[in-house]
UniProtKB/TrEMBL annotation:
Transmembrane segments: none annotated. This is ATP-binding cassette domain-containing protein. Residues 8-237 form the ABC transporter domain. It comes from Dyella koreensis. The keyword Nucleotide-binding applies. It holds the Pfam family ABC_tran.
Length: 251
């Protein structure tokens, strides 16, 4: 029996930034309905990785396959992706409603389909009180919710979230986790980048730990894994730090 192909496949991705390796020979796969936590300290290469997956950065080498096709050769496959960067990219002079309508049109939605998609995401993310507000006057938490709404509007096959809980209060974080679980239950693959271990164990079913651009750990997450994963995470960070210190002293 032929196994189903992964929705996303990264093969030996490399990317240098400012003359230094930000991501080094990264290989990963992600199946439909899976929630992958991309865990690492600040500067581990998480945002660079997500930017390449979303099509905003081109890798120096390696390949990205999306739904079995070469994403680098077929950039139009970006229509399958919903992306929320660490800071939601919004136009301050547009209202919340105008943002949703614009993003919908960019993804090919028109007429009744556009209205239906906007109405559904407004209700789902409780944006009705904000519809006529300019994005420039929204709080950071409200901006994140709007960015998430824009990422979800076209029902993507792959949802890419970079530190999505930033600036959210505990109630909003719980709501975000519910949305992520609902998306996965509907078959959407989700990548959640974070430096917080609790976010991974709360919502993800798999974790990949990046450190200094390289993959150091890739395994399933279970309800009892927090202490083990915490030890693994800190061992990777501390051991890599000790190795770097030794290399610097030798130099």
């Amino acid at each position: 029996m032929t196994l189903p192909q992964p929705l996303l496949k990264l093969d030996q991705l490399r990317r240098h930034r400012a003359g230094r390796p930000a991501v080094e020979r990264l290989s990963l796969t992600l199946d439909k309905g899976q929630i992958l936590g991309l865990l690492g300290v600040n500067g581990a290469g998480k945002s660079t990785t997500l930017s390449m997956i979303a099509g905003a950065l081109r890798p120096d080498s390696g390949s990205i396959q999306l739904n079995g096709e070469d994403f680098l050769e077929h950039p139009e496959l970006a229509r399958l992706i919903g992306w929320l960067p660490e800071r939601a990219p919004l136009w301050p002079e547009l209202t919340v409603h105008e943002h949703l309508a614009t993003h919908g049109r960019l993804h090919g939605l028109r007429g009744a389909a556009l209205k239906q998609a906007c109405d559904a995401i407004v209700q789902r993310l409780e944006l009705t009180p904000l519809l006529l507000r300019l994005a420039g006057v929204l709080s950071q938490g409200q901006r994140q919710r709007l960015g998430l709404a824009c990422a979800l509007l076209h029902r993507p096959a792959l949802l890419v979230l970079d530190e999505p809980a930033n600036a959210l209060d505990p109630v909003q974080v719980a709501s975000l986790r519910n949305v992520i679980r609902e998306e996965a239950a509907a078959g959407t693959a989700v990548i959640l980048s974070t430096h917080l271990l609790a976010e991974v164990t709360a919502v993800c079913d798999r974790v990949a730990i990046l450190h200094e651009g390289s993959l150091h750990h890739d395994a399933a997450v279970t309800d009892t894994d927090h202490k083990t994963l915490e030890r693994t995470f800190f061992d990777i960070a501390m051991n890599s730090g000790a190795m770097n210190e030794g290399r610097n002293q030798a130099a």
